[in-house]
Automatic annotation (TrEMBL):
<keyword id="KW-0056">Arginine metabolism</keyword>
<keyword id="KW-0862">Zinc</keyword>
<feature type="domain" description="AstE/AspA barrel-sandwich hybrid">
    <location>
        <begin position="204"/>
        <end position="263"/>
    </location>
</feature>
<dbReference type="InterPro" id="IPR055438">
    <property type="entry name" value="AstE_AspA_cat"/>
</dbReference>
<dbReference type="GO" id="GO:0008270">
    <property type="term" value="F:zinc ion binding"/>
</dbReference>
<dbReference type="InterPro" id="IPR007036">
    <property type="entry name" value="Aste_AspA_hybrid_dom"/>
</dbReference>
<keyword id="KW-0479">Metal-binding</keyword>
<dbReference type="InterPro" id="IPR050178">
    <property type="entry name" value="AspA/AstE_fam"/>
</dbReference>
<protein>
    <recommendedName>
        <fullName>Succinylglutamate desuccinylase</fullName>
        <ecNumber>3.5.1.96</ecNumber>
    </recommendedName>
</protein>
<dbReference type="InterPro" id="IPR016681">
    <property type="entry name" value="SuccinylGlu_desuccinylase"/>
</dbReference>
<dbReference type="Pfam" id="PF24827">
    <property type="entry name" value="AstE_AspA_cat"/>
</dbReference>
<dbReference type="GO" id="GO:0009017">
    <property type="term" value="F:succinylglutamate desuccinylase activity"/>
</dbReference>
<keyword id="KW-0378">Hydrolase</keyword>
<dbReference type="GO" id="GO:0019544">
    <property type="term" value="P:L-arginine catabolic process to L-glutamate"/>
</dbReference>
<feature type="domain" description="Succinylglutamate desuccinylase/Aspartoacylase catalytic">
    <location>
        <begin position="1"/>
        <end position="189"/>
    </location>
</feature>
<dbReference type="GO" id="GO:0016788">
    <property type="term" value="F:hydrolase activity, acting on ester bonds"/>
</dbReference>
<dbReference type="Pfam" id="PF04952">
    <property type="entry name" value="AstE_AspA_hybrid"/>
</dbReference>
Amino acid sequence: MLLSAGIHGNETAPIELLDELIRSIARGDLKPRARILFLFGNPDAMRRGTRFVEQDVNRLFNGRHEQSGGAEALRACELEHLAASFFSLPDRYRLHYDLHTAIRGSKIEQFALYPWKEGRQHSRLELARLRAAGMSAVLLQNKPSIVFSAYTYDQLGAEAFTLELGKARPFGQNQQVNLAPLRLRLEQIIEGREPELDENLEGLQLFSVAREVIKRTDAFTFNLADAVENFSPLEKGYVLAEDAGGSRWVVEEDGARIIFPNP
């Protein structure tokens, strides 16, 4: 199992969780029965308490770092190589959780993003594992991506997920973030004592991506409040955004939600 955090340096709750797991292993309280690799994605940004230094590391995977430069592009390349080396042994089960917190609040606090690859099916067993780990929802991707979990899913054959665990806060201020179910599940996996999963998805909300809203010109207008939370409901027919040339994004579905309305 690969556990990563700190891809964004100011997303501290996952960093603190991995630090606690590492300390438990060092003390002998947690006894690994499986191969495990811990990766902290952007140490420089972690020390500065910023999301990134020059560019977003989580937009530099699946070869995107080759089109860029600078320390963070090199770091993304290094993370790919470390993950590839770790997952290089044949005929092994491969699991990757890339742990994050979100820029903004969320109507659903803890959720997962499940990458997509053509010809590969999303695993019901993995969805059940996410539910057991405290995730309330899963967003099923429908196109390739350039984030870390998409790289390990697409290129390395891992079952890989981005886990969003609440709102980003400074180090030492994550008391309101309940990571107990996730920590328990990780400890069970690490020690080889995970209870058998029954593929029960009761209570787990599944979402799929309907469309992306991407700013193309300076004429772009986004018709939601700056403080709108992830998974806020949208009314059918609502004009979500507009751009030059008459481009409009209109909500076409019942029960639609907004996620990651980030600049």
